[in-house]
């Protein structure tokens, strides 16, 4: 499938919600053309010298769930992550908008959060309590969904981007949950 690519310095994963401020004409065009397929949020790879290809290969296809004109006159768009995708090829339009051929990656197998990993959900609840604007994006957080908890942590934890990419490319959430448990236990 072909999708427009929106590079960011942050990850958004399936089930995640993120508000965006759209001001460049190329990204206004991307929003106007998103349709039912949406577009892909891609993590910027600052190590890549080729400006066309300065994105990590695992991205997230997103859909627009809300939009509004912001107080500063810019377009505000809220997107939700749908699925992980692998960028296979990319190209750039004359206005600078990059698009790519992407392949959907299989969803992580769903399962409830094991009791031993419940502290991950509890710590995430504390993050939500500390950041009410972030928490407001999620009306009914699925605290017992292991994928959802792992993916929200991967979005917010400041771990190296290359390491996040390895976790995102995995076929399930086991490595992510193990790492998250180690990091959170070490910090508490």
Description of the structure:
- It is built from 6 helices and 6 strands; from the N terminus they run ββαββββααααα.
- With 188 residues, the protein is α+β, with helices and mostly antiparallel strands.
- The chain has 2 domains: 2-104, LON domain-like (Archaeosine Trna-guanine Transglycosylase, Chain: A, domain 4); 115-187.
- The chain has a 5-stranded mixed barrel with strand order 1-3-4-5-6.
- The protein is globular, with a radius of gyration of 17 Å.
- The model has no long low-confidence stretch (mean pLDDT 91).
DSSP strand content: 25-35%
Cα gyration radius (Å)? 17 Å
> Briefly, what CATH class of the largest domain?
Mainly Beta
**Class by SSE composition:** alpha+beta
Order of helices and strands: EEHEEEEHHHHH
- CATH architecture assignment of the largest domain: Roll
Largest beta sheet: strand ordering? 1-3-4-5-6
Total of DSSP H or I helical runs spanning 4+ residues? 6
Got a strand count?
6
Q: How many domain modules?
A: 2
Helix content: 25-40%
In CATH, the homologous superfamily of the largest domain goes by the name LON domain-like
- Largest β-sheet summary: 5 strands, mixed, barrel
> What distance separates the N and C termini?
43 Å
Q: What would you call the shape?
A: globular
Q: On the 0-100 scale, what is the average pLDDT?
A: 91
> What is the fold-level CATH name, i.e. the topology of the largest domain?
Archaeosine Trna-guanine Transglycosylase, Chain: A, domain 4
Low-confidence stretches: none
InterPro entries: Lon_prtase_N (IPR003111), Lon_prtase_N_sf (IPR046336), PUA-like_sf (IPR015947)
GO molecular function: peptidase activity
Organism: Aeromonas cavernicola
Domain Lon N-terminal: 1-188
